[in-house]
């Protein structure tokens, strides 16, 4: 039984499936099934595709009848609603429209009138979700699945692999990880957490035996205007780029979907409140503060170590994600 | 990294009325429940699987008994120095097939010292004194055992066998065992049966009238157990062990002093059958805020020689800095005497009732207290290397994890430590106190 | 078999206690077993130590070790 790596690009990120199996030949059909599932979810929930369900939902904005959705979408919307409620509004799939006015590449802050107008379209409480009917009453409102569909896809691929009798493996979709099963001897996968300021390095390592890990960081995309740093993390409650949050949060949870929601929510808290939120939540986590200090209790039953030297990104991450164009510390 | 620290601070801050963070951890329950409601997200029940990574452990231990107290040694009764044992243990675990793994264990031990022979009264007749064996015994023991385990999704079957050899003793054993789990592995049931056969050829049999030149015995050992997870941080286990032994069960090197028509020393003689029952209850609890685990074990033992014993063991596993674990522990033991145990055979008992008799302190009534401490260091990823094809096929994966542990135990036994107080005429003068120093190295390749 | 068990009632009630305990327990799902998977939460974290201790106590005391059966004895003095 050997370990095979399948690398590919999907959902805008470098991805990797690590599967234990008798031979690459026997694993290939299973890896392909995983890729098809990812492609299916991309087609279904991508806001860039005209033929996607997400686009159909968004086109129905302004229509009082709304649109009926299938079981999978309904359950994801139920999850989004729960996350919205449990985060006091920080997790909000209607906040995607803010991207129209926050153009990070422009180097300019949004026009205040445009921002105000867009803010009127943001807020889960403004839509009506009565399973299986979703109604976006205001024209221009949008549902953005992008905030959690990658994590969901990771869990789905892991699930499919398990159904195909793979007992050991790891799904890595651009840093959102789902464990299929620990190494055949029961030992955990060692996951390196990227250093937010030097993305080629791991700042800590978490051991994972089951479930998933998601990481959110403010380093992915940002812009600097008048000496102030504006990250891509927009607070749905204010419409503004959120300031004062941690540099990065990683959470390990029974499902990558849960981990992803937790990191998104944690990043939209002030640093010390983020720590409190994560501690209250009760999931193993790592929080990297703006000053570089690491906090959290990811070593419950496992071990997180600080890597202070140049070691390179551990194999599970594959390639480096995007550019950290505006590191100015 | 202080998860515990941040939770404690959280309590304080919550108490002082801080708000504006998302609500507490029923949040997690809510998220998890709704995430799991998404169709097609199946979570695995982690099945037990054979090792893929080869591993090996080596332990060295030094066992040293305290000298017999001078006021316990009979005049001219031999050396006060008792036993010391140096032991080497080596274990391996290797995968051999997709669902099969193999374990092998070696043991080599060197023993030397004097051991208790028989008891005699002191000049007043009230106290009992120990006579030690004349020559200092020097012996070696070799032990080899192997087991093969076959894994299925919810079960594991094991076959084991082995032998043990000393200068005057040879034993072989074999057994089968199974483990089945239920309720998502919250409950595990196990059962096993083993058979062993021993041959004894006591040394110097020709020098002692009643020492047999050879003896044999066989035993059947049946075991069953149930483990139950109680909560995220605790579990309990109960096991029952039954053993039946048949054959020569006496100790050829021990004797008992008799007083009737003159002094005689007669050999230790025990029944040729023995049934034993042992019930064990174990509890484990992990305390997250302090990253420490509590181990509590209780064992009740009874047998057909009328010995009843109680054992309680308590240990605390404290994790520090992630790589260091300190384990202090205490053990309390109390046993009653075998019904044929006597320190001496007084007038009228030797010839008239030639029954079973033993002055062996191990069948006497007493209690024992021991304290131990262990320190273990975990060094993960201490070495990276490229295993060749052959090495990979037996489970070498290219990274070495090393664990080193040091431990010390101090054990005291005394007639007065037992649950029932023991009179001077029953207390064995040969009760032993000892120390054990041990070092263990474990590597996962 | 002449086992004089004064605590026979206790012994007989153990399996019943166990069954009751098992039914009363909350089921812990696989993803919640991080603590239970710790090495210091296993029944025998150090198998060599367990074998050694069990052998020492068996040689110096009258009782049989409680754990899983099998394994030979020795001609210990």
The biggest beta sheet of chain A is recorded as: 8 strands, antiparallel
Strand/helix succession of chain B: HHEEEEEEEEEEEEEEEEEEEHEE
- Assembly annotation: heterotrimer
Our measurement of the CA-to-CA distance between the termini of chain A, rounded to an integer number of angstroms, reads 46 Å
Shape of chain A: globular
Spatial strand arrangement across the major sheet of chain B:
1-2-3-6-7-8-9-10-11-14-15-16-17-19-20-21
The structural class of chain B is: mainly beta
Which two chains touch over the largest interface? B-C, 111 and 57 residues
Percent strand of chain A: 15-25%
Return Rg of chain A in Å.
20 Å
Number of strands of chain A: 15
- Report the helical percentage of chain B: under 10%
Q: What percentage of residues of chain A falls in helices of 4 or more residues?
A: 25-40%
Q: Would you identify the regions of chain A where 5 or more consecutive residues have pLDDT less than 50? A: 299-329
Shape by Cα distribution of chain B: elongated
What separation lies between the terminal Cα atoms of chain B?
Answer: 28 Å
In terms of DSSP E residues, the strand content of chain B is over 45%
How many separate helices of chain B? 3
Brief summary of the model shown:
Chain A is of the alpha+beta class. Chain A contains eight helices and 15 strands.
Mind explaining what this structure looks like?
The complex is a heterotrimer of chains A (329), B (445) and C (77). Chain A contains eight helices and 15 strands. By secondary structure, chain A is α+β, with helices and mostly antiparallel strands. In chain A, strand 1 (2-10) and strand 2 form a beta hairpin. In chain A, helix 1 (24-45) runs antiparallel to helix 6. In chain A, 50% of the residues are buried. Chain B is mainly beta. Helices cover 7% and strands 56% of the residues of chain B. In chain B, the strands form three sheets. Chain B has a 16-stranded antiparallel β-barrel. In chain B, a hairpin with a 6-residue loop joins strand 4 and strand 5. Chain B is elongated and about 90 Å long. Chain B starts with a helix and ends with a strand. The relative contact order of chain B is 0.12. With 77 residues, chain C is an all-alpha fold.
